[in-house]
Amino acid sequence: MNHDVYMAGFGGQGILLIGNLLAYACILEGNNASYFPAYGVEKRGGAATCTVVMADGAVGSPVVGQPEAALLLNELSMEKYYDRVRPGGAAFLNSSLISDPRRRAEITTVALPANEMALQLGNARLVNMVMLGAYIAHSPVVSWQALHEALTYVLPERNHRFLPLNHQALQAGADACRQALGA
Fold first, then answer.
1. Contact (CB, 8 A) for 117 and 136
2. Which of 5, 43, 159, 169 is the most exposed place for a label (fewest CB within 10 A)?
3. Are 76 and 10 in contact (CB under 8 A)?
4. Mean pLDDT, range 64-78, rounded to an integer
5. Tens digits of per-residue pLDDT, 81-126?
């Protein structure tokens, strides 16, 4: 197993949280992971990105030029990173904030109205979980069990009351991805 994913959006969308969550789930399954966050100096609204590299062997560098997959949550991220996804890979786009989701024939593109989906679940802050659920449904790099267990570690204890809602958002993203791909 050797997978890498790039996640990008703006501060406040939970990019760093889902990157950490994915890496933690991978480690819980006995594999290795590298989590490489980066963010702008702004508290909210600036760029937020992270790379997660997962492998059953050694992980070399957390820097990835052409990721296997990308989760792109806003227009600027789409413009900057969509073309970097390597052929045969997949891109997961938040069509709520990306006005014209382009398509490349050599990759799988899944565009989901994640903001609207999060609002339907009752919390606008669930966009990140919707998108991560879509990614895991398409690329099962970790098990759902490990992902749910990891969530208890990465969410602060004061927010554990939101665990069921986060689980619902992950499932909603997975279901929407499967529907979008006709699976």
1. no
2. 43
3. yes
4. 93
5. 999 999 999 999 999 999 877 788 999 999 999 999 999 999 999 9
**Residues 173 and 132 sit within 8 Å (Cβ to Cβ):** yes
Beta strands in 40-166 (DSSP E): 47-55, 69-72, 90-94, 108-112
Q: Closest by alpha carbon to 49, among 28, 71, 65?
A: 71
Which two tokens mark 92? 């997961």
- Mean pLDDT, the chain, as a whole number? 92
Six token digits for residue 70? 């990308």
Supply the pTM of this predicted model: 0.93
Cα-based torsion angle of the residue sequence 36, 83, 108, 45 in order, rounded to the nearest 10 degrees: 50
Q: What is the DSSP letter of 86?
A: P
Strand partners, 91: 70, 109
Q: How far is CA 108 from the centre of its chain?
A: 15
pLDDT for the residue numbered 168: 97
